[in-house]
Amino acid sequence: MPRTIRPAQSGMLFMQGNEACAQAALDAGMRFFAGYPITPSTEIAEMLSERLPRLGGKFIQMEDEIASMGAILGAALAGKKSMTATSGPGFSLKQELIGLGCLCEIPCVIVNVQRSGPSTGLPTAPAQGDIMQARWGTHGDHPIVVLSPSSVSEMYELTVTAFNIAESLRNPVILLADEVVAHMREKIQIPESIKVKDRLKPDIAPEKYRPYAVEKGEFVPRLADFGDGYRFNVTSLMHDETGFPTNRSDVTGALLKRLMRKVESRRKEFTFVDSKDVEGSHLVLFGCGSTVRSIKQAAREAQAKGLRVGWMKTSTIWPFPDEIFQNLPKSVKTILVCEMNLGQLVHEVRRATPDKIRVDSVAIADGHFITPSDIMARIEVVYS
Amino acid sequence: MALANIEKYLRLDKFPHIWCPGCGNGIVLQSVLRGLDKLQVDQNKVVVVSGIGCSSRSAGYVDFNTLHTAHGRPIPFATGVKLARPDLTVLVITGDGDLAAIGGNHFIHAARRNLDLTVVVINNSTYGMTSGQYSPLTPTGAFAATAPYGNIEPPFDLCRMAEAAGATYVARTTSFHVLQLPDFVVNAVRNKGFSLIEVITGCPVYYGRMNKLSDPVDMLKWQRQNAINPKQASMMSPEELKGKFVIGELHRHEAPEYTEEYDKLIQKVFQEKS
Ligand SMILES: Cc1ncc(C[n+]2csc(CCOP(=O)(O)OP(=O)(O)O)c2C)c(N)n1
Ligand code: SF4
What we know:
By secondary structure, chain A is an alpha/beta fold. In chain A, 36% of the residues lie in helices and 22% in strands. By secondary structure, chain B is of the alpha/beta class. Strand 11 of chain A pairs parallel with strand 2 of chain B. The site of iron/sulfur cluster has 11 residues of chain B, from helix 8. Chain B: It comes from Candidatus Danuiimicrobium aquiferis. Chain B: Keywords: Oxidoreductase.
């Protein structure tokens, strides 16, 4: 059951995206942060190093991003809502342990403020090149939820949501921000009260506790805290309901299926999409993250020129919101996917969209922020 | 037999264990449990964290809060647990590859912070789990699955490394001298800070077979012949010390412990606020 809490500050505020993320994490109850400095995520760590001790929480700067990821998983098992924040190179380093978090079902939030890559790339330039890595970066099939904010307000809201999903799903959640939303400052309205979810703890006797067993019809097992008398085992090997290694294919197959269904079964609840002027439009712009800002402006400019252009955006990248492409109005001839990479989201859109609709893309990966004119230029070519 | 005192710390339903006959891991684990028994620990308040390797499978066999992590990473997980719950006793059981190769960076940093962890490294001079490749603890000249012509790399001295990095308790023993181990465990856990215990042991199946020590008894004899105490060591020349290992409680010093310093920091910030 969600709790209603009062955020530390509310009302109309002026904030930076990274600040809004740190504030939201604290409001959601995060009390353990481990990280390693990297542009453009560093403000989150800096702010939390100042704020966490004031709330009796802990901040630690670890020796690298792998260690940061390990530390938040350890703290989460000891009962704390935990988070780390990084960018491309650090996100790459975290991958192995993100998979451990998924298999061992340890709730945590990983913020990746994307910057231009590959490798060290352009550290201060915006990009959205980690869309596929956020889904498939760690080895093996695994469940994951990835959220993408397009404004400072969404940095706040989606960070709270990320914790709520992580804790109620017993799974890592990735907040895939980008340099623009992380560094920009704008007005943000923080409500008087927000809903916060906590993980479900076992309510049975310790001898009966099985850390990976679920009730019939449920997908999320209950999680006890280390030190609270339940004495369970967590292993990165495939395991049975009691948490001990097994190589029985019926057990490991069922485990993996349950993990995937955990996300699938609640996909509606995790799908955050928005749209405008799609009804009657010939062309629909689509994107996520800061790109949405240019998409909205381009739609206005196109409409001013008499073109029938609408837009859709998603704040949930994974699971991908297939459903919004499946029942588009008959008027829609073209979807124009706008993104700051050489084409990642566009593959998903092609997969989800019926063949009769053409899918085209504006794909920019040279370090400049995608502009309304970049989008307009393509609208003029593909509009029909 | 003599398992009576420590049976309560074992998950007997998880036996038989996966270790080969003649492996040193069981000898070490048993002695670690004897140490914990001397301390009369509350099993609910002990967390055992391990990495990946034969030695790291120890975590699954003991009845505490147990966490079998990824290769090389038990110390970061243990760091998170200890910071989240400073009241818990946190032990790391790891292998020489796990701790000193892939996990080497975490090892020196946890020692530098003097975080209150007890790290028991089971040093079998090789990567047992993956069939005997050389590790950062394989002696120069020894053979390994990936050193078919003999190892040309020098090994680490883990104890001197821990001391240099800031560990406040450092000890070494072997699976032959294992009667020392329970007391070392007692002192390591009591030490408020980072403690390292290195236990030199044998992997007769891979290291032994490739180095003419395939009989587990020969491995124990090798440990007996080459272990010396600090006093003997102080009288030997560098030439004479080659291939020997110094055993005993090698280092202790007082230093601020990380979680205690953190609590002081929190207190200070609270006072400033009020
Ligand atoms: C990231 C990663 N790299 C490599 C491996 C393969 N691997 C598993 S155990 C191991 C070495 C274990 O050696 P050690 O820690 O000395 O333990 P032992 O098996 O000798 O007890 C290796 C290389 C792995 N599991 N994960
Ligand atoms: S391979 Fe070596 S270290 Fe592993 S269980 Fe067998 S003897 Fe022990």
